[in-house]
Design brief:
Length: 65
């Protein structure tokens, strides 16, 4: 009976390892998607900041003249 328990434990361990290996690419893909979303958000914020800065420069220049 002891050998049966050991064998069952080994099989369960193997199946958990296989499942973890199968899920690993999914986790990487999710992390990559999250990073891309963050990058796009940062790019939008940067573009908005550049536009605001350009508007402020234009206003300041028009006040100077």
């Amino acid at each position: 009976m002891s050998m049966l328990v050991v064998e069952l434990a080994k099989q369960e361990h193997r199946s958990k390892l296989e499942l973890a290996e199968q899920r690993r690419p999914t986790r990487r893909l999710l992390a990559l998607r999250r990073a891309r979303r963050m990058e796009r958000k940062a790019e939008r914020r940067l573009l908005e900041a550049w536009c605001r800065a350009a508007e402020l420069r234009a206003r300041l220049e028009s006040v100077d003249y």
